[in-house]
Request: fold
Amino acid sequence: MFQVFTRRTAIDSTPTGNPPLDRQEPKAARPKIGLALGGGAARGWAHIGVIKALVANGVVPDIITGTSMGALVGGVWAAGKLDELEAWTRGINKRRILGLMDFRLGGAGLISGGRLAELLLKNLGPLSIEDLPVRFAAIATEVGTGHEIWLTQGNLTHAMRASYAMPGIFSPVKVAGRWLMDGALVNPIPVSAARALGARVVIAVNLHAEIFGRGTVIQNHGLEEEMSPQPVPVEVRDSRLGSMFRIDRLIRRQFFGEPNDGPRGISSVMVDAFNITQDRIARSRLAGDPPDVMISPKLGRIGLFEFQQATRAIQLGEEAAERALGELSDAVTALG
Reply:
């Protein structure tokens, strides 16, 4: 069963004062490294490149915490399946993405999430978080109370699914009697969780740094004459069952928008609003508990639903991680 991670106070039985020199433990080769992976929909594929670059340069995290797509990519890496995930992402297109979206009407979300969960279960099996070679936590938010839930035990796939259950898009997931949704509502880049799990050096990956910048205030906007809004055309066709909406085109408009800067669907607007809120929360939390190293891939040209741009996102993640290697080396030396 999943359990909520709670920080416990350990009773230190070591006598006060420095122990004799011949009884001191040898200094560890390096401090424990934690990797906190933020959310960002399709931009989350950049986490693959970040992890690959870090590991290739000898930086193997001891602790990994993730929110939303960060939980998915981080959990897959912890399970030893990152290469398989990368190969799959590089081959996806819009058609395959739509094939994973099991749309439904009248539910708590536009997508039930069952097909994606089945895909994860097929590749990861009944793997438990306790069986991972590193400490792992997926961050989720409890529906109704707003509690921040750290999923550190139980089925890995269920934990990841709860963490990426974006409100209005994916249905909430029930875990151990609690209905959970996307952790980005409370902890978009879980630095605090990585520290609580024992990380001495925390590397954070922010997928929104380039998109939102500093979130400035634009004053005196709207003085120019604006054109009257035009109605959005909806294509219908007649049949014996009555008029039917071209559902395929409506779905594409909802999630991928229209070409040439046309009208965006309500789903895209919801996700944009969600990510703006997530960005503001992340800034506030990071100001109070900043990471030792921040990695910020330049993902401004990748849309939230452009999952087919995985190759580009992975490359940008690798480049961002490589730029941070010098700063990371300094942090490890200083905190070691």
